[in-house]
Design goal:
The chain is mainly α. It is 79% helix and 0% strand. The protein has helices at residues 2-12, 17-52, 57-105. The longest helix has 49 residues, at 57-105.
Length: 122
């Protein structure tokens, strides 16, 4: 039973686990966003080639699927990047709001200069 307790304690000591799993999920989503359109369009191309007796639809639709997959990955990366930058901006905004509330409430942060004494700008 000590082994199970040791395993639980080792999991508690690793705060980076969530970010690792989040990153792995993101990488998996990128892969799926590329493979699914390529696979579906290639399958459609094979079906069309067999139905019409041609041999070019598979190649054409493969590239259409690759473009669609790349577009999916680009949109997803853009959304992920916008989410992380929005989180950073919201973090900066909350710090700015805290500083403004300290100024209006009259509480000075440690090491701060009292503006009424002429030490800061107005």
């Amino acid at each position: 039973m000590e082994g199970a307790d040791g395993l639980r304690n080792s999991r508690k000591r690793k705060p980076y686990d969530a970010s690792v799993y989040r990153s792995l999920a993101l990488i998996t989503q990128f892969g799926i966003n590329m493979v699914v359109p390529i696979g579906m369009m290639s399958a459609l191309g094979i079906w069309l080639d067999r139905g019409f007796g041609t041999s070019f639809w598979t190649i054409v639709l493969f590239f259409v699927g690759a473009v669609a997959g790349a577009q999916n990955v680009y949109r997803m990366a853009k959304r992920v990047y916008a989410g992380t930058s929005a989180e950073e901006k919201s973090g900066e905004a909350s710090l700015t709001e805290e500083a403004q509330s300290e100024e209006t409430s009259g509480h000075m942060p440690s090491g701060g200069i009292d503006r009424e004494e002429g030490g800061g700008r107005k």
